[in-house]
Serine/threonine protein kinase (Aporhodopirellula aestuarii), 551 residues
Amino acid sequence: MSKDARVWRAIHVSLRKSVAVRVFHVAFGGTLESRTQFAEEWARLKKLDHPAICKCYGGGFEDSEAYLAHELIEGPTLADEISRRGRLPWETVLDLAEPITDALSYLHTRGIVHGRLGPDKIIIAGLSPVLIDVRGEDGSAPFREGPYHFQRPPSPEQLKRRPPEAPGLHDTVTPRSDLYMLGALMYEAITGAPPISGSTIQETTANLQYQEPTTVASTVMDTPVWMDRLVMQLLAKDPAARPVSADAVKLQLAEVRRRAMSRSGVAEHASSGFSPLAVTNQADREEARVLLGKHAKTDTPDRVIDATPWHDKAWVLLPVLGLLLAMLVWVAWPLNEDKMRERAQALLDEGTRSSMSQAKISYLEPMVHQFPDGQHTAWASEQIDRVEMLEAEHALTVKLNRNLPLKNEAERLCAEAMRYETFGDNATAVDKYQSLITLLGEKSTGENGDKFDEYRPLVNLARNKIARISAADTDQSEAARIISAKMDEADQLYLEGRTIAAKKIWYSIVELYASNAAVAPLVKTAQDRLAETSASGSGGAIRLEKREPSL
């Protein structure tokens, strides 16, 4: 570690243990007054002994620097845990807040205000939190009087956790300032974000005075109302509106735990009208202790009181549970065959791929399996074939548009037929579809009538395509006439200067009909067009000859 580091890991020779040494620059060149004040400081810190407060072993001077030796605490800070986990469960925050509040109560009764409480000042040692960076100042002595304070302005992130009455690191703080910072710490641990927002010092300072934080319960829904009420009262802008002391916060934390464990209802808490945070005098505090089971002047054992609200009683819950079970049985009761067909038909009528797929998965296939001899089984099988055919057609169209590889012979034959159909040669397309049916039609049905899924959808698609083309009753039955018409279209596109579109048609003619001897002259003409345009360039001219419409 460099010489400028603020914290060192060292060995305490007399104690024979590892310690953390914090090194400070002595103000005023190490005057007698500053050294005396610093010596009084570490003497005061050495007397602190609390399980949730980092132990101080003393300090000393070295040239122009002063140092303090502290107990070495291993573990992540609360800030590290919040950064790693996003936010903590409210139960975990309650477990952390109780010892930290007890540590603040211990400091406040000895006239010490922490003043810098935040997630980075708490180390999680195992499962126990430990408060670090405690300095022996009281509420009347601002931090700037300390002999070892670094004169650095607070960052926006530090300001988001500061009390409104003391936004600066040099401002005077009180025990209620510590309570505000405890509330900010609990708020950030539960929600994952500080209670105040802002990206600059000016914006954050203004928000600190006027912005009202969103309640914890509205951000994290499972937070109990009692925990929400405590955190929001700790974050009150007016110090007088906060709890009177750390002891009052300890009582409220105990109340949160008791009510959470007893499952007390929110209505009971809201109607009780009592909270130990609201007490203002000693008599009220004694009453709070009595109501919270903290009897101060009697040894009479507490009488167990059933605090369960009426709506959580067994005589209410059992009928409600029975009603819920009846509703669940009614909803989960299997549908009959007629009802399944009705729901499947409604989805099929929507006509979208998603609705038809849902009809097949949710109703058609279950009908075939549950009612193999039912009156609607044949209809369900037909609809399954139709849906799978449409799915296969869509999948093949996507592959052709994106130039994706085809997985089997059925897809290759069907794709070739679809390209002829797209080109306009329905006669050749029908021949190709018929070839697919002849080649793979028998393979789509087993010896016992069982159908194989691999070829059946595309064979059905080929049959459907043939029926569709035949029903159209078009006049385009001769490949020569079709190619001639396409050549005329390509020539016209070329004359208009649309060379790329013309070449696309010529390429298609050559690719589709290169092996067809009946139209060889037309294919040769398309090849010549391509060769001439390639030789002359996109700006060149080619000789367009008049062709006969058919061979």
About this structure: The mean pLDDT is 79. The radius of gyration is 42 Å. Residues 377-402 form the longest helix (26 residues). Residues 23 and 67 are 4 Å apart (CA to CA).
